[in-house]
Amino acid sequence: MDLIVDLHIHSHFSRATSKSMTPENMYRWAKIKGINVLATADFTHPDWFSELREKLEPAEPGLFKLKEKYSKQQNEKLPKSVKNNVMRFILSVEISNIYSKNEKVRKLHNNIITPSFESASEINARLAEIGNLKADGRPILGMDSKELLKISLETDPDNLFIPSHIWTPWFSMFGSKSGFDSIEEAFEELASEIKVIETGLSSDPYMNWRIKEIQKRAIISSSDAHSPEKLGREANIMDCKLDYFDIINGIKSNDKRLSGTIEFYPEEGKYHYDGHRKCDICFRPSETKKHEGICPKCSKPLVKGVQYRVDELADKPEDYIHKTNKIVEYIIPLAEIIAEIEGVKSIKSKTVTRKYKEVFSSLGDEFTILREIPILEIEKQGYKELAIAIKKLRNKEIYVEPGYDGVYGTIKVFENQKEKSSELSGQSNFL
Ligand SMILES: [Zn+2]
Ligand SMILES: [Zn+2]
Fold it and tell me: What pLDDT, on a 0 to 100 scale, did the predictor assign at position 431?
């Protein structure tokens, strides 16, 4: 069966995370989004761990469900269109490893997924000897990532270890500010135990496939959501049984059980390209190199983005397109599409919230709407404008302005208001 799997989020015990990241809200929002298997996050936090033990119960092998006592109330709040979606939890945590290696300070985030509360407990016991697990749902530990990988391998061979969002400048394996230049350098003789990497929001599989070391490994995408509304902004499509071991082994062996990923447009990130915000200069890596990294306006060094860092480590050129049988699907969150149609700036506005609810109540969960429902069906249900917008999204007829030097990129379905009104009014032969 096709499953949508999101393996990296945070609970309300993590810094800068919404108070509403509780098991109940995660459960309800996963159904609205169409996520079938969702990470619990933060299992190293003692209070969150007890909350999970109290509220979850075993379901299929290695997976957990919200006890009926808690799920019943949530189901009552959900419309029929999404109420019966399958939703399971999988135990996970992200550790922030800060340490020095080869005379440089390294800061890496790593995720561990585990099949049972017993294995999670064992990991917690080992890590509690190293640092304070109570301070943050994503604990900061002064230990080498390789040592963390060892603990993961020793506590349970069925654990999955994933270097997180590997291009983030400050906190990742390949981060330009505090990472490494290769998996080998970071994990040495255990490098072959790294079976998978997480792209992060600012890179996509195609960028990653320019690197040989990654070509041999699995690529997953996760939302890293800090609030319920952002669950599943990236996710994995898995064709496998609803079973921890089938999911994890599908990822480890990178076989066809891992069908592919659902991606955020990486250009939307704040540091995708290089440039100077003040000088209004935005360059692709090749242009930056042509200018020897110097801004043609102010003659100071340009701020380099994720794409540049990929280019530095890449074995393949910028225009290389890896041949793959993996699905790579790009989405724009439904709330953003609705905001564009309604002509409002904030996706948190009342209009968008009301319309979003109306749409999923009549059409189904967000992933089904964005990816599956026939365009004609969306139109038939009375959502003509949405049908046009989603058709454009699926055909990749969208407008991309990459982010640079701290300026967020923008991804739009309509180029501007004028184009929007002409497309929405003259659509007789569009569908
Ligand atoms: Zn992280
Ligand atoms: Zn400049």
Answer: 43
